[in-house]
Amino acid sequence: MFSRSPTVAALSGNAIQGNFGAEAKQRKNFMTMRTSQWFSLRGACSGAALWLLLVITSHAQVRVVAIGDVHGACPEFSAILQRTGLMDANRQWAGASAILVQTGDILDRGPRSRECLDLLMQLERQAERRHGKVVPLLGNHEVMNIMGDLRYVSDAEYRSFATDQSGKTRERIYQDYLKFLAAHRDHPHPAVPIDEAGRRKWVAEHPPGFFEYRDAIGPDGKYGRWLRKHHAIVQVADGLFVHGGLNPKLEFRSIAELDDRMRGELNEFDSIWQSLSGKQVIWRYMRLEEAVRQVIEELSWIKARGQIDDPEAVQQMQSLLGFESWMIVSSQGPLWYRGLGLDPEESLAADLSALLARLKVRYLVAGHTPQPKFSITVHFDNRVFLIDTGMLKEFFGGRPSALEIRNGRFTAFYLDGEPQLLAAPEGGDTAPRATPKSGDGVNWR
To answer: Within the chain, which residues score under 50 in pLDDT?
Structure first.
């Protein structure tokens, strides 16, 4: 949890540190709340209404398959979908009434994230027609891209969004950038070279497809609209599914409230970004770290002048600098938490038991933390299943996997070898029934 003042952290040059800055080190070693006011996403749409979208009305036995971090490894992702019988060789949904939960981090690192997005979107539509369901969750890398932290997007990924018009698009946007700089000529920002050498540097920092990608992942883009509909945490049957994990010491009322809070923070971020770019405080295509520097310099300029012309803009700038304290980027939040895989179990076991009992669930499934030997691992007396097995082999050295939950049996699937039966949590029914209960997700009786 962040304890420093967000503005102080930003002014000390640390506003992009914390979880975003530590991601490379955490992944490499497999280691590792001023919380802003949150609000509903769609007018009168409450958290309970959002959760009812996930209620499964069938009383038949249900098969659930969970797949962890993909990171652009589309061939491997496709292969494990076929291995589990959810997709055929023609990339058509073959899972009948099964439920596929993808626990986030489709994006970044690998070169074929766009293909993975398209595949999931296609399967989501097909599954619905065949009485199945695809439930993609938000991962920390989806949130990073939405917020403009693009350090893990490769040039190859950008190129997948490039068109034969990308050169003209970039030149047009460069002219827009020069107009933005001109509007800030009297402000104390470091000089940005606009000679030929400066232009070449800017072009190198914005490879072909960069702007098309930013538009596609934005609030009005094809992928951005889709990602922003995703939940951060869901309950299916008697289990919870989340990207990072649930800190047993985290205080929240219900899964619906926690999920709504994180999605509300994303909505708030979009609103602030759009407003500040509309006011020409920041440039709309800035990366997050560039926008933070810009805002710090703007606030310093306003303070030196001793005059506030736009109080709303100042408030929004201060809110943007406070993003580190938001739940969606907190090391203790559901998208980033690694404690269930890295902390001593004895330090968390009692609190975890109490948490699962309070939420009326038996087990939790999470990705985010690559597992030793790249195998699905079971923790906390068979109540926590960690399923990130480093699918993107060229980066993690791992392999694709899937966790199947069916008739009270938990089975690990890999591309090589036979499925492996895992120890199951105690107290499960073999033929659960689905009934909605006061907006707390899917509850099975």
So the answer is: 1-18, 20-60, 430-445
Q: Residue 102's beta-bridge partner residues?
A: 67, 136
Residue 7: per-residue pLDDT: 32
Burial class (CB in 10 A: 0-12, 13-18, 19+), 253: exposed
CA dihedral 411, 412, 414, 416 (to 10 degrees): -70
pLDDT of residue 428: 60
pLDDT at 264: 96
pLDDT of residue 90: 96
Exposed / middle / buried, residue 401 (Cβ in 10 Å: 0-12, 13-18, 19+): buried
Total count of residues recorded for the chain: 445
Element spanning 413, H or E: strand 409-414
pLDDT, residue 106, reads 97
CA-to-CA distance for 320 and 309, rounded, in angstroms?
Answer: 18
Domain ranges of the chain: 165-207
Residue 86, both tokens = 């959810």
Compute the distance between CA of residue 312 and CA of residue 440 in angstroms, rounded to an integer: 36
262-294 burial, b at 16+ Cβ within 10 Å, e below that, comes to bbbbbbbbbebbeebbeeebbbbbbbbbebbbb
Q: Which amino acid appears at position 154 of this protein?
A: S
CA distance 296 to 286: 14
Q: Are 86 and 100 in contact (CB under 8 A)?
A: yes
pLDDT score at 191: 66
**Ramachandran angles phi, psi of 67, nearest 5°:** -125, 135
Which residue in the block uniquely carries the two structure tokens 């979208």? 53
